[in-house]
């Protein structure tokens, strides 16, 4: 789960990371008011969306008067901001953060991620921050410093100091860097984060370290024990198709094609996507109904997949281990009737009670297309799509 920049800054500040003073606004008037309240002579106005790359997309601006803050905020509210990291629809701006402008001497990069290879939290840092890590890895790979943290010991001072020296920091900045690194690590560990990124972490002309941007992402499987983090969820930033499915305990991933997929298990879902592509089709989405899918769950899955208007055929591919094919088949038949389906449905069942399952499908009297193998199912789904011309005319 992602959170907004201002929320990440609030959290990191609690752990000891230096951040600029700022205020949140839900309207242009409030943004102008925030600037007056903060005082000073220059402010940075920042669109709060769950995406980086806002600066390059026109979502961040330096303003010299509170009126300018008000005016720029007015252009942001309600806008769909499209960045390099969002899809073509972008993300809606409903909150704006106003903070005092820093005079930047240098921009550093600082990231904490989980390194699966070493099974440890890893720090990735560079003295040349500001741009995205992917660009940095291309343009200046040698500037990237990596360091893993022993979970039994935590991030020790000497390790943090070593990294500060590697980044070329001097004097008091070293101590500030040690504090910042240790604070980020503790926030990551204590709050079940999966990513903490400060980009840029700047050195000001007066020589101080300040986090000008912050991004945090959390392990959704741990949210049950992080209620304060769970409350920060902002549904306006999520794909509504995915969040609605999540509410019903279904994992849904939205894609761009027209073949809706109901599958159990992420591995089988990946294999099915591959087979659809191989057969010349494009998946519209895939929905993982998980183990133990009752007929009611299958009906729910159909409704969720059909909510995507691009879907012109549904492919059901179930390997029943814990599941039972006859339950899934009952669910498909029930869904067909309840939802009032008008598009073709291809069903491939394998595993527990497969014969009973197939019998239910075949004797249903419904125009369900039965397939035995994954390849057959994918080919049948592609073949049963309406022809593009007919589709447009319809
Ligand atoms: P994004 O990563 O989404 O583009 P950032 O918060 O990193 O957004 O802002 C983009 C750039 O704007 C930063 O790299 C920095 O140069 C500048 N910037 C951001 N906040 C401030 C600030 N408070 N004072 C001065 N410059 C800032
Ligand atoms: Mg940034």
TrEMBL record:
<feature type="binding site">
    <location>
        <position position="213"/>
    </location>
    <ligand>
        <name>Mg(2+)</name>
    </ligand>
</feature>
<dbReference type="GO" id="GO:0005829">
    <property type="term" value="C:cytosol"/>
</dbReference>
<dbReference type="InterPro" id="IPR005809">
    <property type="entry name" value="Succ_CoA_ligase-like_bsu"/>
</dbReference>
<dbReference type="GO" id="GO:0050074">
    <property type="term" value="F:malate-CoA ligase activity"/>
</dbReference>
<feature type="domain" description="ATP-grasp">
    <location>
        <begin position="9"/>
        <end position="229"/>
    </location>
</feature>
<dbReference type="GO" id="GO:0000287">
    <property type="term" value="F:magnesium ion binding"/>
</dbReference>
<keyword id="KW-0460">Magnesium</keyword>
<keyword id="KW-0816">Tricarboxylic acid cycle</keyword>
<feature type="binding site">
    <location>
        <position position="199"/>
    </location>
    <ligand>
        <name>Mg(2+)</name>
    </ligand>
</feature>
<comment type="similarity">
    <text>Belongs to the succinate/malate CoA ligase beta subunit family.</text>
</comment>
<dbReference type="GO" id="GO:0005524">
    <property type="term" value="F:ATP binding"/>
</dbReference>
<protein>
    <recommendedName>
        <fullName>Succinate--CoA ligase [ADP-forming] subunit beta</fullName>
        <ecNumber>6.2.1.5</ecNumber>
    </recommendedName>
</protein>
<feature type="binding site">
    <location>
        <position position="46"/>
    </location>
    <ligand>
        <name>ATP</name>
    </ligand>
</feature>
<keyword id="KW-0436">Ligase</keyword>
<dbReference type="InterPro" id="IPR005811">
    <property type="entry name" value="SUCC_ACL_C"/>
</dbReference>
<feature type="binding site">
    <location>
        <position position="102"/>
    </location>
    <ligand>
        <name>ATP</name>
    </ligand>
</feature>
<dbReference type="Pfam" id="PF00549">
    <property type="entry name" value="Ligase_CoA"/>
</dbReference>
<feature type="binding site">
    <location>
        <begin position="53"/>
        <end position="55"/>
    </location>
    <ligand>
        <name>ATP</name>
    </ligand>
</feature>
<comment type="function">
    <text>Succinyl-CoA synthetase functions in the citric acid cycle (TCA), coupling the hydrolysis of succinyl-CoA to the synthesis of either ATP or GTP and thus represents the only step of substrate-level phosphorylation in the TCA. The beta subunit provides nucleotide specificity of the enzyme and binds the substrate succinate, while the binding sites for coenzyme A and phosphate are found in the alpha subunit.</text>
</comment>
<dbReference type="GO" id="GO:0006104">
    <property type="term" value="P:succinyl-CoA metabolic process"/>
</dbReference>
<comment type="pathway">
    <text>Carbohydrate metabolism; tricarboxylic acid cycle; succinate from succinyl-CoA (ligase route): step 1/1.</text>
</comment>
<dbReference type="GO" id="GO:0004775">
    <property type="term" value="F:succinate-CoA ligase (ADP-forming) activity"/>
</dbReference>
<feature type="binding site">
    <location>
        <position position="264"/>
    </location>
    <ligand>
        <name>substrate</name>
    </ligand>
</feature>
<comment type="pathway">
    <text>One-carbon metabolism; formaldehyde assimilation via serine pathway.</text>
</comment>
<keyword id="KW-0547">Nucleotide-binding</keyword>
<feature type="binding site">
    <location>
        <position position="99"/>
    </location>
    <ligand>
        <name>ATP</name>
    </ligand>
</feature>
<dbReference type="InterPro" id="IPR013815">
    <property type="entry name" value="ATP_grasp_subdomain_1"/>
</dbReference>
<dbReference type="InterPro" id="IPR017866">
    <property type="entry name" value="Succ-CoA_synthase_bsu_CS"/>
</dbReference>
<dbReference type="GO" id="GO:0042709">
    <property type="term" value="C:succinate-CoA ligase complex"/>
</dbReference>
<dbReference type="InterPro" id="IPR011761">
    <property type="entry name" value="ATP-grasp"/>
</dbReference>
<keyword id="KW-0479">Metal-binding</keyword>
<dbReference type="InterPro" id="IPR013650">
    <property type="entry name" value="ATP-grasp_succ-CoA_synth-type"/>
</dbReference>
<comment type="subunit">
    <text>Heterotetramer of two alpha and two beta subunits.</text>
</comment>
<dbReference type="InterPro" id="IPR016102">
    <property type="entry name" value="Succinyl-CoA_synth-like"/>
</dbReference>
<dbReference type="GO" id="GO:0006099">
    <property type="term" value="P:tricarboxylic acid cycle"/>
</dbReference>
<dbReference type="Pfam" id="PF08442">
    <property type="entry name" value="ATP-grasp_2"/>
</dbReference>
<feature type="binding site">
    <location>
        <position position="107"/>
    </location>
    <ligand>
        <name>ATP</name>
    </ligand>
</feature>
<keyword id="KW-0067">ATP-binding</keyword>
């Amino acid at each position: 789960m992602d959170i907004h920049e201002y929320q990440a800054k609030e959290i990191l500040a609690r752990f000891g990371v230096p951040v600029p003073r700022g205020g949140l606004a839900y309207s242009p008037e409030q943004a102008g008011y925030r600037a007056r309240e903060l005082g000073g002579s220059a402010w940075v106005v920042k669109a709060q969306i769950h995406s980086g790359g806002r600066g390059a997309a026109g979502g961040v601006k330096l303003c010299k008067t509170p009126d300018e803050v008000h005016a720029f905020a007015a252009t942001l509210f309600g806008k769909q901001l499209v960045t390099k990291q969002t899809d073509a629809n972008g993300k809606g701006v409903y909150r704006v953060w106003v903070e005092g402008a820093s005079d930047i001497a240098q921009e550093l990069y600082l990231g904490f991620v989980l390194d699966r290879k070493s099974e440890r939290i890893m720090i990735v840092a560079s003295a040349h921050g500001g741009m995205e890590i992917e660009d940095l890895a291309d343009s200046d790979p040698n500037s990237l410093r990596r360091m893993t943290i022993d979970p039994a010991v935590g991030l020790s001072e000497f390790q943090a100091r070593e990294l500060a020296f590697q980044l070329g920091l001097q004097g008091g900045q070293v101590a500030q860097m040690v504090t910042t690194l240790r604070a980020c690590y503790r926030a990551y560990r204590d709050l079940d984060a999966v990513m903490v990124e400060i980009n840029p972490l700047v050195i000001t002309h007066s020589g101080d370290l300040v986090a000008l941007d912050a991004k945090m992402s959390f392990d959704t499987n741990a949210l049950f024990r992080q209620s304060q983090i769970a409350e920060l969820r902002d549904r306006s930033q999520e794909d509504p198709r995915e969040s609605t499915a999540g509410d019903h305990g279904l994992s849904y991933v939205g894609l761009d094609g027209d073949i809706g997929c109901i599958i159990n298990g992420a591995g089988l879902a990946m294999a099915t996507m591959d087979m659809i592509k191989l057969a010349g089709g494009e998946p519209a989405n895939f929905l993982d109904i998980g183990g133990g899918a009752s007929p009611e769950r299958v009906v729910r899955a159909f409704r969720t997949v059909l909510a995507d208007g691009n879907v012109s055929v549904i492919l059901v591919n179930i390997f029943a281990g814990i599941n039972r094919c006859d339950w899934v088949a009952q669910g498909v038949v029930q869904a067909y009737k309840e939802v009032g389906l008008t598009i073709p449905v291809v069903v491939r069942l394998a595993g527990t009670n497969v014969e009973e399952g197939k019998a239910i499908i075949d004797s249903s009297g419904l125009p369900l297309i039965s397939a035995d193998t994954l390849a057959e199912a994918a080919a049948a789904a592609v073949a049963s799509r309406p022809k593009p011309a007919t589709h447009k005319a319809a």
